[in-house]
Design a protein that fits this description.
10 helices; alpha+beta; 17 strands; four-stranded antiparallel beta sheet
């Protein structure tokens, strides 16, 4: 089966995750999909196949070499799709030999994928693209990664002349809600290192990501009839707004790029009596990250100085920059770079302006850079994936397995 055939089959599964269920996996569709993949892996003849109650699926392609010194390399992708848009009844379409113009996704709704808004389309003129019907996301994040891993494993099985060591694969739930690695059994996975196939466009290779925290600032007010409120009312909404404008306006996602960190207000829930601001805090540099958290503490004290006891702060770290765990084993990045070059892909090493399961796994003892899966415009109706990018990602996996065995 080709990587395209697999992908078109996989996106039919509704695996949208949900952070509100407090279950693992967070939605039943993820387990249904994992069970489907489990059957497929059995048909391929993989070994050590296991699917636990939390939806973590693992398997081994056994080494075809008599050598015992070949490291065990792993490849990982996630089962879920983003909660940001429906992944139910995904109806993909292949645009053959893209001509560089507008692509009408849904004429009834006027949904158009245009290079005027998404100039990266111009990079793929002449290629076959898989797009949505304008009603759902596509699911290339990360079903493209799953299709690429399984197709690569099948290729290695069909080409025993390619020497390789043990290759471990895993598919986990709930990456999109930040919980993909929480119950990942690194010891059971038993790989020397791994790669998540969860990056964007062709050539992307990432081993740096944000340090991340979530901050909740709660303001407690006092409601009094507005006609008689002088010197009595404490309007928590107004005080919360005062707090928000005290943060640097240019240090927000819409004004930053590359290694620049930010404060991002993601929700406001408020009445006169009580208002909560929820932020995510991001920075690649650990020291700047810590200073950003200190800034929240400083501003909370400042508010409480003016309005005693009104503001309370909760900050929770989410994940850290995996660079500090990858640099001591930088050869695993070098292998991925060489594999890309060997299959005629230009490596593009970039920092992730976000997180990845690989970041958490790296701190759990499994160094885990991130490799492109090929998709673009994730999490929405304008998502698309060029078919040649998926094919090249599959080639990269095969080549990494070969290079690891070649030493």
């Amino acid at each position: 089966m080709t990587v395209v055939d697999r992908f078109l089959q996989y996106v039919k599964f509704d695996t949208q995750s949900d952070e509100l269920t407090n279950m693992t996996p967070s939605t039943p569709g993820q387990m249904i999909f994992a069970q489907h993949l489990e059957k497929e892996l059995h048909k391929l003849g993989l070994k050590d196949i296991s699917l636990d109650d939390n939806g973590y699926l693992m398997a081994t392609l056994p080494a075809n070499s008599s050598r015992k010194d070949i490291p065990t390399v792993g490849f990982i992708a996630h089962l879920d799709t983003s909660p940001d848009m429906s992944g139910r009844h995904v109806s993909p379409r292949i645009v053959e030999a893209y001509d560089g113009g507008d692509i009408t996704l849904n004429s009834d709704k006027g949904v158009v994928l245009s290079p005027a808004e998404f100039p990266e389309l111009k990079h793929y003129v002449g290629q076959d693209l898989i797009v949505t019907d304008g009603n759902t996301l596509l699911g290339a994040d990360d079903k493209a990664g799953i299709a690429e891993i399984i197709t690569a494993v099948e290729y290695l099985i069909m080409h025993p002349e390619i020497e390789h060591g043990d290759v471990r694969i895993a598919f986990n739930p709930d990456e999109e809600i930040g919980k993909g690695a929480h119950k990942f059994d690194v010891k059971r996975f038993n790989a020397d290192w791994a790669y998540t196939m969860d990056g964007g466009e062709i050539g992307e290779l990432e081993y740096e990501n944000f340090n991340a925290a979530v901050a909740k600032v709660t303001f407690t007010g006092r409601n009094v009839h507005p006609g008689y409120a002088k010197h009595k009312m404490i309007n928590s909404i107004r005080i919360a707004t005062q707090f928000a404008i005290m943060l640097p306006r240019w240090e927000t996602p819409e004004h930053t790029e590359g290694y620049e960190g930010f404060y991002h207000l993601i929700s406001i829930d408020g009445t006169v009596e009580k208002t909560t601001l929820t932020y995510i805090i991001r920075d690649h540099d650990r020291d700047r990250f810590e200073r950003r958290k200190k800034e929240f503490e400083h501003l909370t004290r400042k508010i409480n100085h003016e309005f005693p006891g009104v503001a309370s702060l909760e900050i929770s770290d989410q994940y850290y920059n995996m660079r500090e765990k990858i640099e001591p084993v930088k050869h695993i990045v070098d292998i991925a770079v060489q594999a890309m070059k060997n299959v005629e892909v230009t490596p593009h090493v970039v920092p992730i302006r976000g997180g990845t399961d690989g970041a958490q796994l790296s701190f759990m003892g499994l160094p885990c850079p991130n490799i492109f899966a090929g998709g673009l415009n994730f999490h929405g109706r304008y998502e698309f994936v060029p078919i040649p990018s998926m094919e090249k990602a599959t080639d990269v996996i095969v080549e990494i397995a070969r290079l690891v065995a070649a030493g």
